[in-house]
Write a structure and sequence with these properties.
The structure is a single chain. The protein has about 425 residues and is of the alpha+beta class. The protein has 2 domains: about 280 residues, Glycosyltransferase (Alpha/alpha barrel); about 100 residues, Ferric Hydroxamate Uptake Protein, Chain A, domain 1. Helix content is about 45%, strand content about 15%. The chain has 16 helices and 10 strands. Strands 4-3-10-8-9 form a 5-stranded mixed beta sheet, covered by helices on one side. Strands 5-6-7 form a 3-stranded antiparallel beta sheet. The longest helix is centred in the N-terminal third of the chain and has 19 residues. It is globular. It binds cobalamin. Cobalamin binds next to helix 5, helix 8, helix 10, helix 12 and helix 14.
């Protein structure tokens, strides 16, 4: 028997004899469902509604044990609208909308609009871009979503090409010099789906490499990467128990950590709630194809307390240093000291600096599901073509929240830095 055949056989046997992950009961219990209901309330009744719904919200509602039929219907209609204007969707956006339609038992819509073919074409353009420029048109997180949707929806793809694309040599998985746990986790889900359909030795070793990288990002406080990547990392580890030892990860500790963060308002953005909820339910995106299609009437108790709001602004003022740096061309380094009310977010500091000197500190943003995304500072636009972005830092540390969420502290050294990704 050839090595590849032997490995396939081992994979096959492992899959059938150990179908459950070692922490099978690692999910929120009945008592903790109130916390999950508050996450659902955040998604259903957001503080600041965004014009387009993110499909991950519908996916999370569909994977949750509690349900709100009315909200699901509203979100489904919005997802269908997203699809109608599909010419402007990136590959990952299309893939995510398709996954949401699948979770909502709308395979006929996927079929009628020939979405699988459309995604195959968009995915091919990503691959072509990698072949010509070394980078995808979007990023590897989106490529992971593409492969996951193509695999779950029986699209056409080549396992060996996917194996090469998601190999340690080829994959651009570092953002700002750090391993992107979110990207690794989505890739593991995608590769696991492919490997279950067509066991492949190289895909198996890619999964092994990624799982190892994810586990290396386990922190003292039981998060993996940071608190916003932990839910997706949990999903990846749920589906790959045969790739690590039981002692390598204490799932219950991670679950407890995430549950404890809910009342503190860590997941107050609907998209943050949507990305973490499936794992807390012990579910993964690989479960999307077997969500029950029976109508389950029910309404979530909307009096469920929502997580805390961010710190309220007080009358006290604090003072911070704000700097604009172009780390690529090394030709800009402007700084100022500004005073803002205590409890202000990063964006407030940028606004105060802009008011002081528009030429030096003028900036532009665009609204996204994660809040305001800084697109331009000092007249310099970030460019996906050149793979540049305005990175946010505080005291030399790259932030894990955006300009609209990160609350600054007195004496902080804040920076926006033109960086490469
Ligand atoms: C790829 C990526 C990026 C790329 C996006 C550009 C590109 N064309 O690829 C780059 C490297 C530029 C980037 C930048 C940042 N990112 Co980012 N990013 C991601 C990642 C891994 C995937 C996003 C994606 O493709 N989604 C799928 C597609 C289909 O959805 P989409 O809505 O079209 O995605 C777009 C938005 O998500 C947007 N975007 C990406 N990151 C961020 C961050 C913020 C704050 C905003 C407002 C928008 C935004 O760009 C995406 C592509 O166009 C996510 C991980 C995740 N779990 O979502 C983190 C993530 C969204 N990013 C995050 C952060 C913190 C940032 C930065 C603030 C980091 C920093 N210190 O500067 C900056 C944004 C600064 C700014 N200018 O405002 C956090 C957000 C957490 C939070 N609570 O706010 C996440 C969840 C990662 C994490 N676990 O920490 N990011």
């Amino acid at each position: 028997m050839r090595v590849s055949q032997r490995l396939s056989l081992v994979g096959f046997l492992l899959f059938f004899f150990f179908p459950a992950h070692p922490c099978e009961i690692c999910e929120a219990d009945d008592e903790q469902q109130a916390s999950l209901a508050s996450l659902m309330a955040t998604m259903i009744e957001p503080e600041q509604p965004f014009p387009e719904v993110d499909p991950s919200i519908l996916i999370a509602l569909k994977l949750a044990r509690q349900n709100d039929e009315k909200a699901e219907k509203t979100f489904l209609n919005q997802v269908k609208q997203n699809i109608m204007q599909r010419e402007i969707l990136t590959s990952g956006q299309l893939a995510l909308n398709m996954l949401a339609l699948t979770a909502a038992c709308q395979k006929d819509v996927v079929h009628d609009y020939k979405l699988v073919k459309k995604l195959e074409e968009k995915f091919q353009k990503e691959v072509d871009s990698i072949d010509t420029s070394g980078h995808p048109l979007t990023n590897y997180y989106e490529l992971g979503l593409d492969v996951l949707a193509l695999c779950l929806l029986n699209g056409t793809y080549s396992s060996s090409k996917i194996a090469k694309l998601f190999s340690a040599e080829q994959m651009k998985i570092y953002i700002g010099g750090r391993f992107s746990v979110d990207t690794g986790a989505i890739s593991v889900l995608a590769l696991t789906c492919v490997n279950r359909q067509n066991p492949d030795e190289m895909i198996g070793s890619n999964i092994l490499w990624l799982v190892d990288k994810i586990l290396k990002e386990k922190k003292q406080d039981d998060t993996i990467g940071n608190i916003y990547s932990t839910g997706e990392a949990m999903q990846a580890l749920f589906v790959t128990p045969e790739y690590y030892e039981e002692g390598d990860w204490d799932c219950k500790k991670t679950l407890k950590k995430v549950l404890n963060q809910i009342p503190q308002g860590t997941f107050r953005l609907p998209i943050a709630a949507a990305q973490v909820l499936p794992a807390l339910e012990g579910k993964t995106y690989l479960d999307l194809t077997h969500v029950s299609c029976q109508s389950l009437p029910g309404h979530l108790n909307t009096s469920t307390p929502k997580p805390a709001e961010p710190t309220h602004q007080s009358n006290e003022t604090i003072s911070v240093t704000y700097r604009v740096v172009d780390s690529i061309n090394n030709n800009i380094n402007e700084s100022t000291i500004v005073s803002v009310p205590e409890g202000s977010v990063f964006l407030k500091v940028m606004e105060a600096a802009q008011t002081e000197n528009k030429a030096k500190f003028g900036f532009k943003i665009k609204q996204t599901q994660w809040g305001p995304y800084v697109t331009s500072v000092h007249g310099i636009e970030a460019s996906s073509k050149n793979r540049t972005y305005w990175e946010l830092l505080s005291n030399g540390q790259s932030l894990t929240e955006g300009a609209g969420s990160f609350v600054v502290s007195d004496g902080d050294n804040l920076e926006v830095r033109l960086s490469k990704y």
